[in-house]
Structure formats: C-alpha cells, structure tokens
Design a protein that fits this description.
alpha/beta; eight-stranded parallel β-barrel; two-stranded parallel sheet; binds 6-O-phosphono-beta-D-glucopyranose
C-alpha cells in the first residue's frame, strides 16, 4: 500500500470554530442574547452557571469572545496564510432572527456573514457552515422552552430558508446541528436551549433533568434537521448537508461478554441513534427498547416519519477528541470529555482536563462509521486543549499540539488506506477561542494565539504559534510532510 499520496487533491484542510465561542459582539447591530450568552465562565473544577438574566459584574465569555466580529479580515488572512482550503464557522441564529420568531430577518446580521463569506471566497476558502452550534435565541427559551416545544421547528426552518437563499452562491456545505447527540445526556440539554428549570449544574450532571423532555427536544431537532436538508436541496441542488455527531468512543473495560455488550449498547445510543435517523431517515430498531426501558414517549406528528425519510444527509461529520472505557468499573477514576465521559484507559494518557488521547481510536471510528453508512465523512473537530506558554520573545512552542495532531493525521491516513472516504479535516479552535465546557480561555487549541485571559482581559492581539508553521507545511504537502 502506497502511503505517500494518500489524500485526494480535493481534500479539505482547514479549521473549525463556533460563533458563540469566537465572534463576540453579542448584542451589537441588532443581535440579541442566545442561550450561550447566558452562560458564565467556569473552570475545570468550577462549573459554568446559566443565568436567567445577565448579572452585573459577572463574566460571560461569549459576549466578547475573541471578537471575530471585528477581526474577521485579519483572521481569515492568517487562515489563508496557513493554506486553508476550508473553514468551519457557525452562524449566530440570534444575529439573523434576534428573537427567534421575528417576522423579518436582521439585515445587519445577514450583511456580516456576506462580508465573512466574501472574504473567504477572496482566498478560495470553502466555508463549512454550522447552522446551530450549541445555541439558539434565548427569547425562544423564555417563550416556549426552546426545543422542548415543537414550535421551535418552524422558527429554525424559517431561519434556514433565509440563510440558504441569501448565501446560495457562496456556501455549499452546511451542517444542521452541532453535536446533535449531546441531547442524549443531561449535560447537553441547555446547549440546545431546551430547559428553563434550574440548570446551574449542567456541566457536572447535577442539573434537574427530564429524560422525556430531552428526547422530545431531540426529536424536534431531528425533524427540523430533516426539513432543512430537504429545503436546502430544493433551494440549491448543489448544496451538501451533513449531520454532526459528538463521537464518544467507548471501549469495553474487559473482554467479559457483558462489558462488550455495554460498549455496543452505548455506541448504539450515544453515537448511532441520531446519525441513523439523519443518514438512514428513520429511528433504529434498538431505540424502541431503550425508549421503553427509560419510559420515554416521543410524541410524533403524523407527518414526521415521512419528513425524516425525505431529509437524509449527504455527508457524515463528527468531532473526535478522546476515548474512554465503559462496562465493569476498572481500577481508577472516571475520565472526562466533551459531554460524554467514562472510565480511564490504562493504555492512554490524558490532557490537563482529563480527556484521554487516542489517535488509533480515530482510525477505529472512521472505519466503524464508514462501514455502516458508506457516505463521505468529514472530521470537523479534533485537537488538544492545552495551556500554552508565551516565551519572552513572544514565541509559543506548542510541540505537544503538533505531536497530537500528527498522530491523528497518521491514523486518518491509515483509515483512508483502509478504504474510508474521508473528504476533510478541520482541527477545532484553529485560533484560540473560549472553551465550551468550562468557559476558559486558558484551554487553548489554536495555531494562532489570542492575547486574552480567563477573566476577559487582554489585547486580543493575534500571533502565530509553532504549530502554525507546521500545519502550513502539512497542508502544502497535502498531508505528506508531517514532520
Ligand atoms: C465540542 C464542541 O464538543 O468540543 C465545541 O462542539 C467545543 O463547541 C469542543 O469547544 C471542545 O470542547 P472545550 O470544552 O474544550 O471547548
């Protein structure tokens, strides 16, 4: 097997971000609060709080984030310098429909994304657009508890129609919901704007939870996603629309058959339930038993089955950061991750936030998912959250990040050689942005450093890290030169 020219020349190399972690300008030019704007900063040990009102003197990291809103030209120029052929960003729904159910869109918001997309096109960078990345207009949460209500579907579809029509000629790739499967667990609920109860502990799983409400909200999102896919294809048959799954790779803790079965079951529920609906157009059979056991009764409208069938996605995209162990509790502690956690794996190391580093797991997941769906795959998030040190001369020698990414790209190569149709790679937080789970700035993923600290102080100055030059070489060689 020739492992030199592995990636096709059309391979999309880039990076990924999300509006609420990157843009700032949370209440400028007509934008109103999103659910993410109500989340305070936290740390690894202190969970973020969700407030019903903006509290004075409290730091809400999304409000300024790292101000892409006013730095987009400079940032896109830096992405172009690295050689990006794509860039994943999300549109802030409440910038377009500030209240979620407004009769007309906010022209200033639409104009902002016109400017961003034009700037990307100037450098031949393909935008990959997430329609809803862990946020929704907060007014919808106030009005009818967000996605808990079926009314959210129409609001979302109207928003989709507006952006599909407006950006018909400048955007080709769309992702309906970021990590839609996060709603499977309590920690993901507020991200979907789905609950108005006391959610102060959503990030440590102590929030008041209702499984019934979560799965009903998830159903609404799945229906909304399917409607969006159909609408997208009607508006522009060239559009490619994808699902986006937070892939939680869980190995059985032992070869005991029951542990293997637990791993299979978790894979089905956590990872495959949503993508089965989005890729195949119907709920999988195993969902029925799970819903019965959990006493979940999803209210489906008569037309839902048909809607789901007609809204199958064109590609499968996912985030991959870590793996964990499930089944009989092994020696040692629990491990952490983005939304899904499990037990520690003695064969792996972890980052400072307890996310276990597992490049081979990426090859495993790519093969596993491709075997099931056989549609093009994109890795739209991957990366190492780490504390970077700025040296006296201003340099940042993030060799640990280079090692992490190199090891994962090596495994992508293996997967492509295995036969997986992988079409793109977008490391997360290609420029330092706010952490979603903790609200910190100190947890950095970027090739580009941004001068800002956890309390919101800093000049916002951008500078290139060592990994910037490394990734530039990787892209220029289409993944051949990883040194
Ligand atoms: C993913 C999310 O789950 O993980 C991103 O889609 C998030 O929004 C990323 O930022 C990394 O998580 P964190 O908590 O390190 O920012």
């Amino acid at each position: 097997m020739n492992k030199t020219h592995v990636f096709p020349s059309s391979f999309l190399w880039g990076g990924a971000t999300a509006a609420n972690q990157y843009e700032g300008a949370w209440n400028l030019d007509g934008k109103m609060a999103s659910t993410a704007d109500m989340m305070t900063s936290g740390t690894h040990t202190v969970p973020r709080r969700i407030t019903r009102r903006i509290e004075e003197g409290v730091h809400y990291p999304s409000h300024e984030a790292v101000d892409f809103y006013h730095h987009y030209k400079e940032d896109i120029q830096l992405f172009a310098e690295m050689g990006f052929s794509c860039f994943r960003l999300s549109i802030a729904w409440s910038r377009i429909f500030p209240n979620g159910d407004d009769t007309a869109p906010n022209e200033a918001g639409l104009q902002f994304y016109d400017n961003v997309f034009n700037e990307l096109r100037k450098y031949n960078i393909e935008p990959i657009v997430t329609i809803s990345h862990y946020e929704a207009p907060f007014a919808l949460t106030e009005k009818f508890n967000g996605w808990a209500s079926r009314e959210a579907i129409d609001c979302y579809v109207r928003y989709c129609k507006t952006i599909f029509t407006r950006y018909k000629d400048v955007v080709k790739y769309w992702i309906t919901f970021n990590e839609i499967n996060s709603l499977i667990v309590p920690a993901g609920a507020f991200l979907a704007g789905a609950l108005l109860v006391d959610n102060s502990g959503v990030f440590n799983n102590t929030a008041v939870d209702s499984t019934q409400l979560r799965f009903q909200a998830l159903h609404h999102q799945l229906v909304a996603s399917a409607k969006a896919v159909k609408l997208a294809h009607d508006i522009n048959p060239e559009f490619k629309v994808g699902c986006m799954i937070n892939y939680s790779c869980g190995y059985g803790s032992t070869c005991k058959p029951e542990d293997m079965l637990t791993a299979l079951r978790m894979d089905q529920i956590n990872n495959m339930l949503c993508s089965d609906v989005q890729v195949r157009g119907e709920y999988p059979d195993f969902a029925r038993r799970y819903f019965d056991e959990k006493n979940i009764h999803i209210h489906m409208a008569e037309e839902d089955e048909e809607i789901l069938k007609q809204g199958c996605v064109d590609f499968y995209s996912f985030s991959y950061y870590k793996s964990h162990v499930v089944g009989t509790r092994p020696e040692g502690d629990e491990t952490q991750g983005n939304v899904f956690g499990g037990f520690k794996n003695p064969y792996l190391t972890a980052n400072d936030w307890g996310w276990q580093i597992d490049p081979v797991g990426l090859r495993y997941v790519l093969n596993h998912v491709y075997d099931r769906y056989r549609i093009p795959m994109m890795i739209v998030e991957n990366g190492l959250g780490a504390i970077d040190v700025v040296e006296e001369d201003g340099s940042i020698n993030d060799t640990y990040r280079i090692d992490f990414l190199r090891d994962h790209i090596e495994q992508m190569k293996e997967a492509v050689c295995d036969g997986v149709n992988l079409i793109g790679y977008m490391p997360w937080g290609c420029i330092d942005i706010v952490s979603a789970s903790t609200g910190e700035m100190a947890k950095r993923y970027g090739f580009i450093h941004v001068d800002k600290d956890n309390n919101g102080h800093g000049t916002l100055k951008r500078s290139r890290k060592k990994s910037f030059y490394w990734y530039k070489k990787v892209i220029a060689s289409n993944g051949e030169d990883l040194n």
